[in-house]
Structures are given as C-alpha cells and as structure tokens.
UniProtKB/TrEMBL annotation:
This is CENP-V/GFA domain-containing protein. It comes from Symbiodinium microadriaticum. Belongs to the Gfa family. Residues 139-158 are annotated as: Disordered. The keyword Ion transport does not apply. The keyword Hydrolase does not apply. Residues 16-135 form the CENP-V/GFA domain.
Length: 181
C-alpha cells in the first residue's frame, strides 16, 4: 500500500493519499486519524484472515474515496459494520457502522491500516483481546532463533525442485479447474 504526503492543504491539515494493490480504489484524507484500533474480534479475523485488523478512524468530512474499480461490501451480522473492499484485488478498504448498528457512527469512517497515515498523536487501543487466537504468540526474534550446528541439510535440493517444476503444468491446470467452479 503506497501512502504519500501531498503538498495540498486544507487549512493547516496535510493531505495524504493511498491506493489498494491494483490502484482501483484510492483514499485521500486530510490530517491524521482520530484513533487507531487493533481489533481482535472474530469478524475482523474472518474478514481479513489475520489475527487482528488495524483500523484508523477519520471524520467523513476529511475523507475522500476515489473508486475506479467495483467497490464491494458485506456485513457479517445484522447489527455489525459494513465492510468495503476492492472488487478487483480484494484489498480491505474501510468499515462503517450504520445507524442501527451496535455502535452507530454517522460521522466516522474506519480505514484499513494500509490506507491510514499513522503518524501518531492519537489514541491506539486493542479491543476484543479475549477473541485473540491462541496461536498468535510472537515469533522468536533473530537473536532468539538458533540454527542447528553443522552443514545445511538442503544442499541437494535441486532435484526435488526440478521435479516440482515438471508438475507445474498439472498443478496450474487443476487450479484453473477449481477457479472455474
């Protein structure tokens, strides 16, 4: 996700612009976010495929959405938020609670983290930590990770890789079959 500070200003607020992977959806915001939320709820986990989603709250009055590819949306539950994503590349874009939701917000859009210029200066919170997957423990750092002593075990790996390349056409053909449905 590319984020670039623009020279345009609205009052004293700097404009920032970001785009999804295919540049089909672009977001422009003026100023930084009001709040950053790291959400560990089951809905964010299911929607993103990650342990948690990072959302940044911006006032609607300071947010412009430029859509050049289909913008898709879905709602996981009746009282949940509408989640928007690029219909071409699948990139998460935004989330907004509707007036009848559990947390109605008429003035705020929650942008996916890669769209948000996270410059600090605002509250950052973690919510629904009790829903955090059990396997989300941090990986060891480089200093903590120990390589086994002795020569590397994969020095003769050229043959299995070559055998895998010979089967590449069969693998991609089966993938195309599943993609057709």
């Amino acid at each position: 996700m590319a984020m670039a500070g623009l020279s345009r200003k609205q009052g004293s607020l700097v404009a920032y612009q970001a785009a999804c992977a295919c540049s089909g959806v672009k977001v422009m915001t003026y100023g930084g976010p009001m709040q950053i939320t790291n959400c560990h709820c089951d809905a964010c986990h299911a929607a993103t495929g990650h342990s948690y989603a990072i959302w940044a709250a911006y006032p609607l009055s300071r947010t412009l959405l430029i859509v050049n590819s289909p913008l898709r949306s879905f709602r996981i539950s009746e009282n949940g938020a509408d989640r928007f994503f690029c219909g071409r590349c699948g990139c998460s874009v935004a989330m907004q609670y509707h007036p009848n939701s559990v947390w109605p917000e008429y003035h705020t859009v929650w942008l996916a983290r890669h769209f948000a210029e996270l410059t600090g200066g605002c509250d950052e919170v973690h919510i629904f930590r009790e829903d955090e997957p059990m396997d989300s423990a941090p990986l060891p750092t480089t200093e903590e990770f120990q390589m086994p002593p002795g020569p590397r075990q994969d020095q003769g790996a050229a043959e299995p890789v070559a055998a895998g390349i010979e089967n590449f056409d069969q693998i991609t053909a089966s993938m195309k079959f599943w993609a057709r449905g």
